[in-house]
Structure formats: C-alpha cells, structure tokens
Amino acid sequence: MLAIEILGLEKTYSVGFWRKRPKHALRPLRLAVEEGEIFGFLGPNGAGKTTTLKLLMGLVFPTSGSARILGKEWTDPAVKAQIGFLPEQPYFYDYLTARELLEYYGQLSGMSEKERGPKVEAMLGRVGLHDVGGVQLRKFSKGMLQRVGIAQAILHDPKVVFLDEPMSGLDPMGRREVRDLIEQLKREGKTVFFSTHILSDAEALCDRVAIIHLGELRGVGAVAELTSSIHGKVEIVWQGTHVPESLKNLGECHVTGDTVRAVIAEENQEVAVEALRREKLRLVSLVPVRASLEDYFVQKLKQVDKMQGVIA
Ligand SMILES: Nc1ncnc2c1ncn2[C@@H]1O[C@H](COP(=O)(O)OP(=O)(O)O)[C@@H](O)[C@H]1O
Ligand SMILES: [Mg+2]
User: Fold this and answer.
1) Which of 23, 37, 62, 66 would suit a FRET pair with 15, their CA atoms being 20 to 30 Å apart?
2) 64 and 199 together in one domain
3) CATH code for the domain of 82
4) Atom of ligand 1 nearest to the CA of 23
5) 6-44: burial string, b at 16+ Cβ within 10 Å, e else
6) Could you tell me the residue range of the domain that residue 255 belongs to?
7) How many domains does the chain have?
8) Same domain? 14 vs 87
9) Range of weakest confidence among 137-146, 185-194, 283-292
10) Which of the four pLDDT bands, split at 50, 70 and 90, describes residue 310?
C-alpha cells in the first residue's frame, strides 16, 4: 500500500497589503511514498517544503488538490491517530519538564494513565533524555529540544512520521543521533517523510528523495539513480610522470609521486586509453566519478535559474 499519495496539492498565498498579488508557494504537486520508505523532501529555503507538510497535516488549506495517507482521505480524523509530526520550529512551554510534556501529549492522543507512565519513560530513554526528564525545557539545548520534538511525534506509535527539518541547527553528533532514530523507525516498519536542506543527511538515509525548488518538483528517485544520471566523468590514473600532449587538452592532469591522475569526460575515455598505449604508459585505474546528491541538486537548481534567466 502507498503510505502517502499527494494528488496535485497546490497552495497560492495572497501577499501584499494594498495591491494583493499571488504567491505560488506550491505548484500542483504529485508524489507517492511507499509504506516503509524513508523519503527525503529536499529543497533550498523557500522551496515549499514546510508548506507541503502543513498542507498534509491539515494546518493550511490547499488552493486545490488533495492527498491520501495510508489509503484514506488526508482529512479523515482516523488518519490523525496514525501519523506523527515534528514542526520546523517546535515551540514547547518552557516551564514544563520533558516528562510533563510527553505526559501531556500522551493524554492528547487518548492514552490511559496506566499506559502513559511506562510509555513516557521508555520514550525518554529512547531519545536519550531519561536523566533530564525532570528538567524544565527552558534549560534544554537545541539538540535536546529537537529530541523532545521527535519523542512527541512518535509517542503514540504512529505508522507514518512527518519531520520538518529534523536535523537543522544540530551539531554533527546531534544530527547523527537523529539519523539513528530515523533508521530505527524504518526498522520498525514505519514510513518516514522528512524535509531537509542538508543533502549529506538525505544521501545517507533515504530510500528515495524528491527535489523541490520554487514550489515545483524537479526530480524524484533513489539517490543512486539520480546521481548516476549526471555521471559522464571518469578518473584515469597511469604510472609515471609523463603527460601525453593529447591528454593535456582533455582535462586537468595532476602528477602525484610516480602516478598521474586526470578527470576527463566519459566520451573521451577511449581516446585517452589509446594515447597512453601509444606512449607505452601503464594504466593503473579507470573508474567512473561518482556524482553526489549535491551535484545533482546544484544541476537541477541551475536548470531552473537558467530558465528564469531566459524569461526575464
Ligand atoms: N503564510 C504565508 N504567506 C505568504 N507566503 C508564504 C506563507 N508561508 C510561506 N510563504 C512563502 O511560500 C514559499 C515557500 O515557503 P516554505 O514552504 O516555508 O519553504 P521551505 O520550507 O521550503 O523553506 C516562500 O516563498 C514563503 O515566503
Ligand atoms: Mg521550511
């Protein structure tokens, strides 16, 4: 079954005071997420990520379109019990302790008092806050608050978890902890849909990603699939310090120790190998250069900017 189906959701805000003009925060978006997937929703600031999540949570009304979550209409109250949400900048009442806050969220989701106590304790342990469960939230660091936020999102054991920028503002250790938590959720069979502008985190975690820019979807797929589509470069290494003339024009050649390394376009690979053979230079390796998600991302955003450049 599909966990999330976004069926042309669109949001246009009306901005300006005297002269209202439309602001297309999200162009009609179609997207499907399988059950059990970790799905990354990537885009720079202002791309429309939070708007999409708010629409899915029913926090803002769409201009048009709809969505289905776990096979049900997204506005169906039965859906709410099965989903968890971490907002982008969660605000919690400063003078509550982590334990009190989770108790409160447990009450909201209809847990009995007997059920609540052990669940809250287990959750505090799970997010590494057991020792500070009795400390007021105003004394918490950003990373600790983020963990409280995740704890409230998963306390009621939802099937689908939505996280808006769960790693932003965290140090590398904090990001690692959040990543581990997301991986654990996947192992429990849950679906995780999270937005981020930190590409390395998405690359390490996601089964599939979608890239959105200026409210428009620019690409969807498995990370390996997307990055392989922009390959086209190979790294070639040979022994010696000599660089054949014909190779100098193909790409930058670096001499290190007793080998030379050059990165050239894939289509010039044959020419390069032939040149080495002619000069009796021994080939050490020839490997495709793996593009990163960042390369793909930058390429996709550039395409949009170019198009806008033409229009302007
Ligand atoms: N309530 C609002 N009124 C007007 N414009 C908005 C509102 N919320 C968001 N926007 C605009 O919509 C665009 C997308 O915003 P957002 O979804 O927050 O992006 P992201 O989360 O990807 O950074 C931005 O240009 C933002 O300024
Ligand atoms: Mg946002």
Assistant:
1) 66
2) yes
3) 3.40.50.300
4) 5
5) beebbbeeeeeeeeeeeeebbbbbebebeebbbbbbbbe
6) 233-288
7) 2
8) yes
9) 283-292
10) very low
Contact 106, 141 (CB under 8 A): no
- pLDDT > 70? residue 308: no
Tracing tokens 């990354």 back to the chain, one arrives at 40
Ligand lying nearest the CA atom of residue 45: 1
Shared domain check, 266 and 151? no
Q: What is the pLDDT of residue 309?
A: 53
Residue 39: helix, strand or coil by DSSP?
strand
Q: Around Cβ 234, how many Cβ atoms within 10 Å?
A: 20
Please tell me whether residues 151 and 45 are part of one structural domain.
yes
- Residue whose structure tokens are 């847990």: 111
The residue-averaged pLDDT of 256-283 equals 91
Check whether residue 145 and residue 274 sit in a common domain.
Answer: no
Q: Which residues pair with 235 in a beta bridge?
A: 263, 287
Residues 125 and 262 in one domain: no
Mutation to probe ligand 1, out of 6, 9, 13 (largest number of atoms < 8 A from CB): 13
CA 20-57-177 angle, to 5 degrees, is: 115
Choose one of 51, 211, 217 to mutate for the ligand 1 pocket test, by most ligand atoms within 8 angstroms of C-beta: 51
| pLDDT reported for residue 306 | 61
DSSP secondary structure string for all residues of 66-125: EEEETTEETT-HHHHTTEEEE-SS----TTSBHHHHHHHHHHHTT--HHHHHHHHHHHHH
Tokens representing 68 are 């289905």
Residue bearing the bigger pLDDT, 253 or 152: 152
Q: In angstroms, how far is CA 238 from the centroid of its own chain?
A: 39
219 in the same domain as 167: yes
Tell me what pLDDT residue 208 has.
96
Closest approach atom of ligand 1 to CA 215: 14
Mark whether 109 and 167 lie in a shared domain: yes
